[in-house]
Amino acid sequence: xxxxxxxxxxxxxxxxxxxxxxxxxxxxxxxxxxxxxxxxxxxxxxxxxxxxxxxxxxxxxxxxxxxxxxxxxxxxxxxxxxxxxxxxxxxxxxxxxxxxxxxxxxxxxxxxxxxxxxxxxxxxxxxxxxxxxxxxxxxxxxxxxxxxxxxxxxxxxxxxxxxxxxxxxxxxxxxxxxxxxxxxxxxxxxxxxxxxxxxxxxxxxxxxxxxxxxxxxxxxxxxxxxxxxxxxxxxxxxxxxxxxxxxxxxxxxxxxxxxxxxxxxxxxxxxxxxxxxxxxxxxxxxxxxxxxxxxxxxxxxxxxxxxxxxxxxxxxxxxxxxxx
Length: 324
What we know:
Order of helices and strands: EHHEEEHEHEEHHEEHEHEHE
Radius of gyration: 20 Å
Number of helices: 9
Oligomer: single chain
Shape: globular
Strand content: 25-35%
C-alpha cells in the first residue's frame, strides 16, 4: 500500500477532524476537534505548518498525522512535543514509526531557528492504556519523565461549598483582565515541571483568543485592592459534545501565586466555578494535573470531588545538548 506524505494545510482541516474522530472512537481519550479549531492550530505563530506538520494520505483519505509545535520559551530546556495519531484501520503498518522518525529529525531544525544554543527534548504523551505507543517510543529510546492524570467530576452530584477568603472577591473573566490573568498564570506556574512563561502572543493564540475559550465560565479572584491573585480559565470542546452528548467544562488553567497559596483561593475559585458550570448547563467538569504537582493541587481537586479518569506519561528524548 502506497501512502502520500505532505504537510497539512487549511484545506485539510475537515479530513483532519474526521481522522481525530475515528481515533477517539476507538481510543476514548478525547482529542476530537472541529475543523475551525484545527484551522486555529495551523495559524498558531508557534507552529510552522510546512515543516511542523505531516499527514499520510491513502486514496484521498487522511489516515495519519503528526504536529510538532515550538514553545514560547526554553526554560531551561526547549521541550517540543509530537502530537499525532494513526487511524485505527491503518495501525501496525509503520505509520506511527514514520511520524516519530520525522519528528526526531525535524524538531532540531525548527528548534535551532528559535533557540540556537539551547538544549532540546522531544516529548510524546502516552496514555497508560496504549501499549503499542509505549513500545514504539521505547524503541526510539524515549523514557517516561513525568506522569499526569485526567480528572472528571459529575456536576449532578453534591458540589463543594467554599467561600472566598476574607477580603477576596471572585468575578467572571473580563477582557481588560487579560494581562493580569496572564501574569498570575506565569507566576503560579513558575515552579511547575515543563511550564514556560506565556507571552502576550502565545497567551492569545492558545488560551484566551481561541474559539474553545469560555469567558463566562472563567473566573478571577481579586484582593481588596483589586489585584488579581487567582485565576480559573475554562475551555469547551463542541466536537466532544457532538460525539458523546456530554457537555464538559474543561478547566484549562487554575493558578494561585506562591504568596497566596494555602489560603483557600484555589478551592474557592473551584467551588464557585463548579456551581456556575452547573447553572450554565454543563454535565461534567474536567481538568488535567501533574501527578507530582508541588502545590498540592491533586488534593484540592480530590477534595472537591474530582476522580481520576485517565493516566498518561510524557516520554522524553534529549535531541540537542546545550552549547551555551
